[in-house]
Amino acid sequence: MGVVAANVPWLIASHANFGSVLINLFVVTPLAALFGTMIRVMEREAIRRREVNSELVAMAAENARLSREAGVAEERARLAREIHDTVAQGLTGIVTQLEAIGELPEEQARRLGQAQELARTSLAEVRRSIDALRPGPLQDQRLADAVRETVSNWSERHDVPASFTMTGTPLPVHSEVEVTLLRAAQEALANVGKHARAKRADVTLSYMEDIIVLDVRDDGIGFEPRPGAGFGLVALRERVAALAGSVAVESAPGHGTTVNVTLPAIEVA
């Protein structure tokens, strides 16, 4: 109707004959309106198809992500089984055989004791690796229990008093976050045992609103922190950075060391 109304003044002013007026009003004008409507419909259809395509692309990306996660979980489970059935079983056999050896001269007995301790330590590390590889997120207290067990085993192995404290309410977060925190506790305590000559160590796991913080403190000899220096934390820094977290090391000669690991509380999907 808008097209017709727009043409009427022109037709009157141009004194067009009646036949031309009828053709213009009842043939040309409806065709023009029809073409306009078709163009608008085609534009809407094109927009709808773009939206559908965008949704399909997003769905494909999500399916690919889920497929990758399923593949990673399956591969981790397979590796855990392989390690358990080969390395862990072999180390268990070595420990058993070493413990079965009878009386030996003092020097040989000392070396045997060192071999037994090394085999037990390696077996404990392998078992922790198997635990870290298991699929699915840790739930509720399981991360805290794993860190507490790590602290207890480390204290017993190194004959150094160590405490574990948890604050806040445990959150069901992504397994990578929890495994990384457990690895951080293991790595930091391993460094305390190797380098610190500490008389005490304290580990704190803190659940906050949107982050989880792990602190490992010792009263050892300390050192002068330098960027890129060893301390066995290079791989840990990379792993934490991949999860948008941070690692901070505070130390000074004669004043002990504190390792702080902060990770976002990425929730389970």
TrEMBL record:
GO terms for molecular function: kinase activity. The keyword Iron applies. Its cofactor is [4Fe-4S] cluster. It holds the Pfam family HisKA_3. It catalyses: ATP + protein L-histidine = ADP + protein N-phospho-L-histidine. It is found in: Cytoplasm. It comes from the Bacteria. Its EC number is 2.7.13.3. SMART domains: HATPase_c (SM00387). InterPro entries: HATPase_C_sf, HATPase_dom, His_kinase_dom, Sensor_HK_TwoCompSys, Sig_transdc_His_kin-like_C, Sig_transdc_His_kin_sub3_dim/P. Gene3D superfamilies: 1.20.5.1930, Histidine kinase-like ATPase, C-terminal domain. CDD domains: HATPase_UhpB-NarQ-NarX-like (cd16917). Its main location: cytoplasm. It is an enzyme of class 2 (transferase). Keywords: 4Fe-4S, Cytoplasm, Iron, Iron-sulfur, Kinase, Membrane, Metal-binding, Transferase, Transmembrane, Transmembrane helix, Two-component regulatory system. The chain crosses the membrane at residues 20-41. Residues 181-267 form the Histidine kinase domain. Member of the two-component regulatory system NreB/NreC involved in the control of dissimilatory nitrate/nitrite reduction in response to oxygen. NreB functions as a direct oxygen sensor histidine kinase which is autophosphorylated, in the absence of oxygen, probably at the conserved histidine residue, and transfers its phosphate group probably to a conserved aspartate residue of NreC. NreB/NreC activates the expression of the nitrate (narGHJI) and nitrite (nir) reductase operons, as well as the putative nitrate transporter gene narT. PANTHER family: NITRATE/NITRITE SENSOR PROTEIN NARX-RELATED, SENSORY TRANSDUCTION HISTIDINE KINASE. This is Oxygen sensor histidine kinase NreB. It comes from Paractinoplanes lichenicola.
